Amino acid sequence: MMKVSVWIILALALVDLAIVVNGDDSEKTVVKTVNGKKVCKRGWECLDWSEYCCNETISDFFQPYQFENLFSKRNTPVAKAVGFWDYQSFILATTSFQHLGFCTTGGKTMQMKELAAFLAHVGCKTSCGYGVATGGPLAWGLCYNREMSPSQSYCDDFYKYTYPCTPGAEYYGRGAIPIFWNYNYGAAGDALKEDLLNHPEYIEQNATLAFQAAVWKWMTPVKKSQPSAHEIFVGKWKPTKNDTLAKRVPGFGATMNVLYGEQVCGQGDIDAMNNFISHYQYYLDLLGLNREDAGPHEYLTCAEQAAFNPATSSPSASS
């Protein structure tokens, strides 16, 4: 059973979120200096002392109507997760990560670009859009919250001592950036303090947790020696000589690489890659940014990049 204390915190946060959504800008930024460095707290949304909490929080620049614009078809009758996803669940999920820099790094333009990039991954991975879909193929993000026809239970016995599969549990894809396999559910559960190894179904039952798992995946490196998608995007990753030889450069393209590897990258100009790029550019438009803000083509694409984690070396690279 999920922890009662977590639900109390979320309930209190919902009350505060309602105040913010209704336009009461009563949140105050509290500032102090630690070892000569400015750190802040900001209301319920950025609770831990952090340099990132000195910046605007996500709800300052991302409003409910914008969420509705980005995911306008998610509650149509043909969608597969009607009534599941909402703005409040997303904002609540981000409160676990804003103090770590999620969409709070850099100036407002960078913050909004990271939001667009992250949500582009979400929209693309959960879309049921197609070429002639009403509203266009990019309007159908958050159509799903789970894999509809799993081909297997995604139990890998290689991890039987660290993340053993629970009898009867199925570790198929769930969430806003779907998680697959027992070891990924186990690692996400450890980080989020939820028993996802024994109860992977929690992710398809709670939208806040489903968004939290996605942000955790964005913020967490697949391997300790590698950058996270967040670090790549906000410029905290400095490519090594090997990265340069592999044509890996900072930008949206490398976020696809580190999350999905050869499924999307290093295959030339394929639809699987271009769908992510199209979602990113579309979301930039809807958030009022210029597509030029995405950077030059080589930053957008991963068509020629060698995978961070080739399929033969790491099963978790693309799941």
From TrEMBL:
Q: What Gene Ontology terms for biological process does this UniProt record contain?
A: carbohydrate metabolic process; cell wall macromolecule catabolic process; chitin catabolic process; defense response
Task: Identify the keywords attached in UniProt to this record, alphabetized.
Answer: Chitin-binding, Disulfide bond, Plant defense, Signal
Q: What is this protein called?
A: Glycoside hydrolase family 19 catalytic domain-containing protein
Asked whether the UniProt record includes Signal among its keywords, one would answer: yes
Q: Which Gene3D superfamilies match?
A: 1.10.530.10, Endochitinase, domain 2
Q: A Pfam family name for this chain?
A: Glyco_hydro_19
The set of disulfide-linked cysteines is: C155-C165, C265-C302
Instruction: Kindly indicate where the leader peptide sits in this chain.
Output: 1-23
Top-level taxon of origin: Eukaryota
Bilayer-crossing regions: none
Which InterPro entries does this one have?
Answer: Glyco_hydro_19 (IPR016283), Glyco_hydro_19_cat (IPR000726), Lysozyme-like_dom_sf (IPR023346)
Asked if the Swiss-Prot or TrEMBL record annotates the protein with the keyword Signal, the reply is: yes
The family assignment reads:
Belongs to the glycosyl hydrolase 19 family. Chitinase class I subfamily.
What are the residue boundaries of the Glycoside hydrolase family 19 catalytic domain, all occurrences included? 66-293
Give the GO molecular function terms. Answer: chitin binding; chitinase activity
